[in-house]
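#struct-help
A.M.: can someone run this one for me? Single chain, 427 residues.
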Amino acid sequence: MDFMEKITELRAQKAQLLTQAQALVDEGKITEANAVTDQMEDINAQIAGLEKLAQASRENARPDYDGALHGKPADSGKGEGKPFASVGEQLLAIYNFRKNHVEDKRLQKVNNAVLGSNEGSGTDGGFALQTDFAGMIMESAVQQSPLLNRLDRYTCSSSANAMRWVSADETNVSKSVFGGVQMYWASEGAAVAASKPQFREMKMDLEKMMGFLYCTDEMLEDAAFLSGFASSAFTLAGDRLLTEGVICGDGVGKPLGLIHSKALVTVDKESGQAAGSFLGANAIKMQARAMPRNRERLVWLMHPDAEELLPTLSIQSGEAAKFLWNPEGGLGNFDTQRVLNKPVLFEDSCSALGNAGDILLVDPYMYILLTKGTVKQDWSIHVEFLTDQNCFRVVYRCNGAPKVSKPLTIKNSTKTRSPFVALAARK
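D.P.: on it. Structure tokens below:
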């Protein structure tokens, strides 16, 4: 089950109820507004329950880490190619093989299962990480990230190094969809013009993401500690590097980021707007340039330096100001800050405040994240003799890119729309 998708749906329902409650309060119908608030509290309880289930699912997906941390080794009889009870136990076996020349047949068993019997061994400079450990580290990095877990994710098969798919080639949806499919009102017996879609083949090659972990002999002696430390360290490092690629990657040996997408629509600053500022008019115009459908998936991506600008974000309504910002909690009990009722995700991979790309409004589901899965996740150890340290290397195969490559034109409008909208530079 995709818990995040269901949570997103519930948040969208809560947003509609909030708008309804605010309207009732404005009309002085406090009793009716309280009834709507009760519905929102029920939705909050459902969201909290789903978040607990999602957390339990993630914990269940990495039992080896938890078992090692609590001194409860997981079942070592997991099947062919999974003889180690924890990632720390496997790292310790690799260390003993390379430094003390203590052969552990379980290492070769994992290599045979993952790489094939003739494709690699410790003497070639690396050992394959047991498949369930490799997959759990990458999955944890994605699931724990507020941005990555909203992307459209795919996994390559073990024999593939790229993904090909057919996408609709469309830039104008004012009359047709999918680049040419069109419906007509037709009287009985009347002929209508034929329509056909336009497609383009798209390809995404896997890129290589590498990580390094240095640890001392003393650390390696504690397999339980190393299990938790290594998994947490690589999860956080993988999250940060992938997030950076998704937001600002140039597509050369790394994902193509949102900021460099050809589909990105840029909204001009206001006349006389101060350097580095963010105005209510900017937010309104950015939302107006997003695609009309699937608005419930939109999120703001902002550099953390923009946070202090949000509490005063407003538009003038007569002689009063209407504020567009909601804090965490508050009416609706939001789990994130919100602007125009859309979640705000603070990411330091966004451009510096005042530069184009510091504030984005995006539909993250319109971005594809491709991973290799659990095959050929290689770990190597190199002895740093002078510092008494050991270096483990992990290699992930992944890539990412926006689903669309051009802004779209809708009916009765001269303005293009896109799932990715940026605010222009304010300097």
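A.M.: thanks! The mean pLDDT is 78.
D.P.: also worth noting: The longest strand covers residues 389-402.
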